[in-house]
Prior knowledge:
alpha+beta; 3-stranded antiparallel beta sheet; 11 helices
Amino acid sequence: MKYNRIRQIGKEGGFGQVFECEDEYGNKYALKVLKNNSEFGIQRFEREVRLLSRLNHPNIVKIIASNLVADQKFYVMTLYQCSLTSVIPHLVNDYSRQLLIINSILSGIQYLHSEGVIHRDLKPDNILCNSDTDIVITDFGLGIQINSDSSTMTKTTVFGTYRYCSPEQWNNSHEVDYRTDIYSMGKIIEDIVTNFGANRNINSSIRMIIDKCTMQNREDRFSSIAELQNFINNVYSLLMGEDDLQQLDDALLRLSSHQVSNDELAMGVVRNLFNEVWTDLALQTSLAMKLNEKRLDINVIFTDEESFPPLISKIYKK
Length: 318
């Protein structure tokens, strides 16, 4: 099949160029061409084709065809309208759209990790969109298959995009695990909710999720994408249900200002609210984060650690 280039699309990378193209039947695709024929450039391009050829998920870009023996190596993939970079400015305070997009990205990353793949270059430019529900992760040039590609990489090699690159990857891109993608995802979530830093007044629970994703020590981050996604969904369910969120905020404000510390009747009202935590995961998530945020003495509410609701016990930092 012959593919005719129409125009260059996206930003030109150091190793490849992407073009809109058309096949002999008038169908339009995206054509990625290797422009760096160094040994590392070829290795990176072939690894990308190899990974994409075996991956199959709605949130991972699909490879249509490839040619790795031509003088100019290339592969063909589904064409998308834009990258997440151009969508983010339209997401300000739109929690519903933010959640749809974040969940799509997280679903793609979770699939990659389940297949033993670490992306290592997640950023808005590498997420393509046709709509809020048609989103894919692309550009797998730095992607590695655990216990395969990773073992062949030069141990001193460092690469990635600085803002989205975890400290351990920036120090040594060989010595990484799935949590390097969690770090990158935290930065992407921050981009989405702040419009690339233009809006710093964001929800405190989302800020705590971002901070946990981007901890310098990877041991302090979320342990998996599934865990991160669970917290995201619970916090956003509260953001889109203002009554519960406001009720919890009011109760915690009263506690933090000691308005109810010696008032058994008021404390009873607060305890009734916290009793919901045992059956409502969303409230439990928000409560744990707000306890941290307000630096409350948790013993005001619970007399011993064994009585803490499970998520509070896990998240609360003494």
